[in-house]
Amino acid sequence: MYHDFNYQATLATSLRAQWQLDDVLRADQELDFTRNFMPESLARTAALDTLNPYEQRILNQISAHQYLCIFGVVEEFILPFLLDHARPALRGDDWRIRALINFASEEAKHIHLFKRFHEAFARGFPVECQMIGPSEAIGAKVLSHDPLAVGLVILMIEWMTQQHYLGSIRDERDIDPLFKSLMRHHWIEEAQHAKLDTLIVDALGQGRSEDEVDRAIDEFFAIGGFLDDGLKAQAGFNLDALEKVIGRSLDDRDAILAQQHQAARWTYLGSGMVHDRFKATLEALSPRAAARIAEAAPMFA
């Protein structure tokens, strides 16, 4: 077996690690807009040498707003996915049901947390930042696909958030401490969610033929393409907001748009596709599936 996860142990760890919303971000707390929010490895704003440091910081903050709002959208389709997965077996393994319901409850808390961040951001930022949506339509589109494909996308995202915190945020000293703390608390609970989603994907893949897995991977890519289109649109909205704040049009807007879209592709797709834990699940499901995703991953670097 490529992992030793189980529902009982994961639930126990999750319950020990739980935090309360007000301990992370109170409804009246303010963000420090004199600081960057996102680490450079994810935002890639310092590389834009046609922007001055102030403009780079503004775009970095817009990128952080994008980051948590998009994860809020993702959590909104994870929640019904979990409930749909739990519902058929309510009389089965009690540890499994309790772990999945707790997983869903924590995702609902994260949605609430991200809404609080958006409200704090909107209070302190000089312009409104448009977001892709509506979230209900995005979720409906994603959830219309094969549950195995959806489960793989969610698993990719869960492991991706682990890498973001451990690899980019934890040791970053130049970002807003409140934003950093928020990401730390999100990481703590997502560590258990990634284990539970691994178990979900294992169950969804059980008994699938190679052709059936192949079709699920086709749908995984279809979901990825849909999300990628959204990331490109969001990059445009982000630049619209930047131009409003700085009071000028960007001469090299197309180049900045392409660079920021690629940064988002790495953040939300590529960094998950290459995560070792995600690749291990793919290998256990189907070496061919793992090879197909490994072949596509460099496009999102």
Task: Give a description of the structure.
It is built from twelve helices and no strands. It is mostly helical. The chain has a single domain, classed as Ribonucleotide Reductase, subunit A. Helix 4 packs across helix 6, helix 4 packs antiparallel against helix 9 and helix 5 runs antiparallel to helix 8. The two termini are 30 Å apart. The model has no long low-confidence stretch (mean pLDDT 96).
Radius of gyration from CA coordinates: 19 Å
The name of the CATH architecture is: Orthogonal Bundle
pLDDT < 50 runs, ≥5 residues = none
Q: And the CATH topology?
A: Ribonucleotide Reductase, subunit A
Strand fraction: under 5%
Shape: globular
Mean pLDDT score, rounded? Answer: 96
Order of helices and strands: HHHHHHHHHHHH
Helix-and-strand structural type? mainly alpha
Helix content: over 70%
CATH C-level class: Mainly Alpha
CATH superfamily: Ribonucleotide Reductase, subunit A
- Main sheet makeup: none
Topology:
Elements: H1 7-17, H2 21-24, H3 40-43, H4 53-86, H5 94-124, H6 135-143, H7 147-169, H8 177-205, H9 210-246, H10 253-273, H11 276-285, H12 287-296
